[in-house]
């Protein structure tokens, strides 16, 4: 597999979904590292992401020394950045350290990530995954419990915003899974996690209100045509297809968090929107094709990428 020049963030996302099925995944990892370090990325700030992805591929093939080298170079490339991607890279580094028996170093890598549990929706997944590799399920349960309590503190059990609702959902969900692994009895937070899961799975019920035009979903080719025809709609739908999907996923999580059931996306097209002269609300009202949300974790993602939901749009919070 030969990677083209000027790889974008979207290209890297696609490689992440397909690399493990490639004929030579380690070759893909090496090419990613070379692309990051020779300036063959569309955005030089993606160098850390490309190198971390190389580390993830090497780890999956038990090439732990190479994986650790890649992730160390990723963290160097990230520099002083402090966001969820950096946290994910540090979680990956801790995971690799656990695999090679350097447990004290792994725990030291994870400790500073604890505050991220109440800042980023995907932090619960990469922190608990690293602890699971080290057999530290009880530590994961302790950290997630503390994060849930922090997320709920002073709010009478109700999240203060849509972002808080999404974050709480993923915290509760991850904590619930860890407690299941440990065989612990259900508590109040477990019951809340199950109620939220049930609400989200209840896609057969009708939505409480007419779907809003901001739940319009455009497949990749259609999205590109829409933005080319109406550049101002990038403010509404996102500047690229990845942002488009991420915005929709966040909005669906928010709606689920406030009790909406029967959630679905409206599949749109550039031609259809053009017939309505770019009037989004009018176009949404006449659409009938819906995509139920959420899919099962192992089912194909709602966006049509062909990847499983759990490895595609679900982590995008």
Number of strands: 3
Task: Kindly name the structural category.
Answer: mainly alpha
Q: Strand share of the residues?
A: under 5%
List unreliable stretches of 5+ residues: 203-211
Pattern of helices and strands: HHHHHHHHHHEHHHEHHE
Evaluate the radius of gyration.
21 Å
Overall body shape: globular
Strand order of the largest sheet: 1-2-3
Major beta sheet summary: 3 strands, mixed
**Overall mean confidence score, pLDDT:** 84
Give the number of domains.
3
What labels describe this entry?
mainly alpha, 15 helices, single chain
Q: Can you give a write-up of this model?
A:
This protein is an all-alpha fold. The chain has three domains: 1-81, no CATH class; 111-201, no CATH class; 213-311, no CATH class. 57% of the residues lie in helices and 3% in strands. It has 15 helices and three strands. The protein has a three-stranded mixed β-sheet with strand order 1-2-3, with helices on one face. Helix 3 runs antiparallel to helix 4, helix 4 runs antiparallel to helix 5 and helix 7 packs antiparallel against helix 8. The radius of gyration is 21 Å and the shape is globular. The two termini are 30 Å apart. The model is unreliable at 203-211 (pLDDT under 50).
